[in-house]
Amino acid sequence: MTTHPAPDSPARRPQSIIPPYMLEHISEHADGPVRDSAKKTLEHVRTAMAMPAKTEEGAIRPLLAVVPPAHVPGVVQRTIYDARHLGTLPGKLARREGQAAPTGSSSYKATNEAYDYLGATYDFYWKVFQRDSLDNKGLALTASVHYEENYPNAYWDGKQMVFGDGDGKLFNRFTYAIDIVAHELTHGVTESQNALLYIEQSGALNESMSDVFGAMVKQYHLQQSVDKADWIVGAGLLYKGINGKGLRSMAAPGTAYDDPQLGKDPQPATMAGFVSARPDNGGVHVNSGIPNHAFYLAALALGGRSWETAGKVWYQTLCDPSLSRTANFDEFAQLTIQHAKSTLGANQAGLIETAWKTVEVL
């Protein structure tokens, strides 16, 4: 396993599901509380999220939590906290492993969704890839819900998940979509396994890994074949009346939303639309559409269930010790083809190569 990056490395910066450019557009085009929530969240993304989070006692939070005592491989350990609409973490204990789901209040929906979807993500990695939690060492999974007031985002801070309730106008609560939960947890997998630097093409690959495995967790949870899946990241997150299907489309990057308040989905599907210079750490949330689309095309061509075909190859590539932390799209693509040949066979590897050629990486 590779050595973790230094605390000020881009790989250590907490990664959020809502990209800065979307928050910028909302700040400029929405009104009232929605605009104010977006502005506050954008400031958080640009400043506080670039630093290691602090506990309620003020101590710097470590990269990953310790393994729980007497951990049994394959048995998830979850703890959910209620941040009580404050900005300190983790908050008040709301539910721990083995406790029955709390009832009697609508605020418990987020608690129970976080608990269920953390478990579903753990089960996916264990049952499909025999990976024991995010670090493959039994890391206990921790999440805080009801973070700040009307916070329109969710993020992984290097130790735990953090979920806002959304602004009530554009965004639903961020525990609503299983693939968002899995997306953010997968940042922990990438951070532990390879620590792809969160900048430019390696950062776009980092984001793409989270979208790819988030999609597979949802498909596994629903037992969907590739032709039945929606390939939308965050379906159900947007409120009714918003012109959009979700945050990103892996099947058709650039088409997930087109709304006056949100703006238009800027993701390219091929290298012809690659954005070489923009904020967001060099366009990590934008250019991730290219490897996302390559995975979609590969999975569709291979057929069946994504986690049994293309997903195996992508996981092997992410875990390959030769994958550099500064990997570009071409390096990652070449490794997927190599792993496909040994795992799936030459013909199937050819389908994956065709997918990368279609998005103009090769």
Provide a descriptive summary of the structure in words.
The chain is an alpha+beta fold. It has 2 domains: 15-193, Elastase, domain 1 (Roll), CATH 3.10.170; 200-358, Neutral Protease, domain 2, CATH 1.10.390. Helix content is 41%, strand content 9%. The chain is built from 10 helices and 10 strands. The protein has helices at residues 20-29, 32-46, 108-129, 178-193, 200-222, 279-287, 289-302, 310-319, 329-343, 346-358; strands at residues 15-16, 78-82, 92-96, 141-145, 154-156, 161-163, 232-233, 248-249, 258-259, 263-264. The strands form 3 sheets. It has a 6-stranded mixed sheet, covered by helices on one side. A two-stranded antiparallel ribbon has the order 7-8. A hairpin with a 4-residue loop joins strand 5 and strand 6 (161-163). The longest helix is centred in the middle third of the chain and has 23 residues, at 200-222. The protein is globular, with a radius of gyration of 19 Å. Mean pLDDT is 89; it is low at 1-12 and 48-64.
Helix-strand blueprint:
Blueprint: E1 15-16, H1 20-29, H2 32-46, E2 78-82, E3 92-96, H3 108-129, E4 141-145, E5 154-156, E6 161-163, H4 178-193, H5 200-222, E7 232-233, E8 248-249, E9 258-259, E10 263-264, H6 279-287, H7 289-302, H8 310-319, H9 329-343, H10 346-358
Parallel strand pairs: 2-4, 4-6
Antiparallel strand pairs: 1-5, 2-3, 5-6, 7-8, 9-10
Helix pairs in contact: 1-2, 3-4, 3-5, 4-5, 5-6, 5-7, 7-10, 8-9, 9-10
